[in-house]
Specification:
Blueprint: E1 2-13, E2 26-36, H1 39-44, H2 53-66, H3 72-86, E3 91-97, E4 109-115
Antiparallel strand pairs: 1-2, 2-3, 3-4
């Protein structure tokens, strides 16, 4: 399997458990890896046969900013489900970083990998 990736996709959004987090947008950074077969797109030079990282990026941004959630865990579960359902990938890994969450840390975050259900 080949891999299409997006690195450090920046999205400003409302996310967090605490009241002060619900008042101001925070920066999130997404690293996304998607497994797919790039051969059909490569052989035809046809974007319609590719896993279009621009469309994936737009979808992640739209979902992340549409309806605030409290937990990064909730957000990445939602995003992996969307990507698996809407794009031609059999497996997706998303790492999301929230740099402002812990003052003493450069960043904190969550990373998950999900596979498309067989059948």
């Amino acid at each position: 399997m080949d891999k299409v990736f997006i690195s450090q996709l920046h999205v400003d959004t409302i996310i967090g458990v605490y009241d002060f987090e619900k008042e101001t947008k925070q920066s999130l950074y997404f690293d996304i890896e998607m497994l797919c077969d790039i051969k059909p797109a490569a052989q035809s030079d046809d974007i319609n046969l590719a896993l279009d990282y621009a469309q994936v990026s737009e979808r992640v941004i739209a979902h992340t900013t549409a309806k605030p959630v409290e937990l990064l865990e909730t957000l990445v579960e939602q995003l992996t489900a969307i990507i698996l359902a809407e794009f031609n990938t059999s497996e997706v890994t998303i790492k999301v970083s929230k740099p402002a969450a812990v003052t003493q840390a450069q960043t904190v975050g969550v990373q998950i990998t999900r596979k498309k259900a067989l059948g």
